[in-house]
């Protein structure tokens, strides 16, 4: 009897609570749309009126993708802009976080993680006077711009360094999810490897996460155990490389330099240098020239680059990489220019043609030389 | 091929070691009747403390000891709340994890770029026993490991002896099964609970330090990534026995490496390649724990069930 009473009480409590909560949330929604329907349009915002917020999908730390963006943010702060950041925001938290920021008066948003896309679209519609900028995004409209780097060009150069260094002709690549953005990096890297070393293969391990230091370390050890002598990742940390270095494996970093962390094994890294882009972006917001159209920034803009090759590299690698870099900048070398075969040996990009930007952004197949699987990985 | 398997087992044992320490610690706590869900948090603080002491003193012994002490300090919060103040164990443990994880991330936020000195890593990295480590299959797994791995096995052996062959161990089990009976027999119940919760925290801290000193090896935010929770599941999987904890921890460690083995070697059925999704392997430890739970509930063997007084506060007045 006692038990039954308790159960009934609990049930009543849950019901009451859920009613109260649902009441709350519908209230919220109403006021939200009311606020959004104010007939306001996008106007330039002077430098001193700009309140800029960066939202990162992972912790900033001292290396990796978010850290690279944060260096760009720091450049804005140094130039006298009012700028803040929030880190480690999961996709589902994004909407609430940004709402809070806008309530506080932030009017320029830089959302740096791919998964924020749908929320950006929704919020951009709701707050038409706020500038949204979504890195690696697909959809752009009125006040929602998208921008990204052609990092695959840097990956190609890093792949060359790896291809020249490897002796076992096996190179490990630790990655998160088989989405086009990641597949493009792996393909660019592999094309670079095979350009200088047609016998080498790139073994891809998926971790199913953007941040899992232990699992990345496990992947690094497994790659070392199975004979890979260069390890590379497209993740936010270098845990895989550090673990593999214990077994004497060379390392290529990710997004930012790894020279300090692994001085004895670090070769180079594809890197982002965002400062210049961010400065020009907020300036364009001030002078009214801002445009939401996709900005796809290659080696020629300096937004993506290759870190200085260390002395650990094969002799002559620095010269070859520098030469290739110049060719890419001049347009003499197109990374995804045919003929390029896929994993089954079939020609996917015919000679004389190259992938369009749209095709690069939706890439869902691996080039020849990649030892890994897209469909079954996750 | 033999060599490949040997190296795979080597990785499995390394990855299982932090879980082994934490599981052994939690077995001690649970045997005294305390389900401490703070393992993840205590591992986090241990991981940070071990790393900070390691980088400043360059002494593995001090680093591991301090990691353990910091873990034990965390567990004392739990002990005061649940043993002395009779608070709900689940709530206290859960809050402890959230609090300690946050605290470790806060204090550790500036140390992401520091690395352990080389002289330190050389002291703690795998000991290469000449001859024996060349034995195919088991050579690298057993005879080429870090001192922390061997210490983990030693701890398990010592705890097994303690729990099964000593008077203290017997008393501990009585406390967990029926504290009022223990009280009548003159066993200091509160002291036993404090000591074993503390020892559990110590081992969780040491487990955490294995991550920052040996496996990753440096400090990173949220480095435990759920390992503490898996360790709590492992206690059930091991049926509260230190001996079975060894195999359980290494088995769960092997599952981590298996993710990548299966990615590079699909299962082929009539010429079509099938890949096992990584997420299924991530689920496996928990699935197997549920299975073990079901089996012990259905089973009749008394020694396989959880301590009777687990998760219940002991009021002496109600005796």
Structure report:
- The complex is a heterodimer of chains A (378) and B (319).
- Chain A is α/β, with parallel strands linked by helices.
- Chain A has 2 domains: 47-149 and 274-301, Response regulator (Rossmann fold, 3-Layer(aba) Sandwich), CATH 3.40.50.2300; 152-269 and 307-371, Rossmann fold.
- Chain A is built from 11 helices and 16 strands.
- Chain A has a 6-stranded parallel β-sheet with strand order 2-1-3-4-5-12, sandwiched between helices.
- In chain A, helix 2 (65-78) crosses helix 9, helix 5 packs antiparallel against helix 10 (317-330) and helix 7 (213-225) crosses helix 8 (239-245).
- Mean pLDDT of chain A is 84; it is low at 1-7 and 19-39.
- By secondary structure, chain B is mainly α.
- Chain B has one domain (2-318): ABC transporter involved in vitamin B12 uptake, BtuC (Orthogonal Bundle).
- Helices cover 70% and strands 3% of the residues of chain B.
- Chain B contains 13 helices and 4 strands.
- Chain B has helices spanning 2-31, 39-57, 60-84, 89-108, 118-124, 139-143, 147-165, 167-177, 179-184, 189-215, 227-237, 242-264, 278-298; strands at 127-128, 144-145, 267-269, 272-274.
- In chain B, a hairpin with a 2-residue loop joins strand 3 (267-269) and strand 4.
- The longest helix of chain B is centred in the N-terminal third of the chain and has 30 residues, at 2-31.
- Chain B is globular, with a radius of gyration of 20 Å.
- Chain A binds chain B through residues 59, 61-63, 88, 203-208, 211-215, 217-219, 221-223, 225-226, 237, 239, 242-243, 246, 260-261, 371-373, 375-378, and chain B through 4, 7-8, 10-11, 14-15, 112-113, 115, 121, 125, 211, 215-218, 220-223, 225, 227, 256-257, 259-261, 263-264, 266, 273-279, 282.
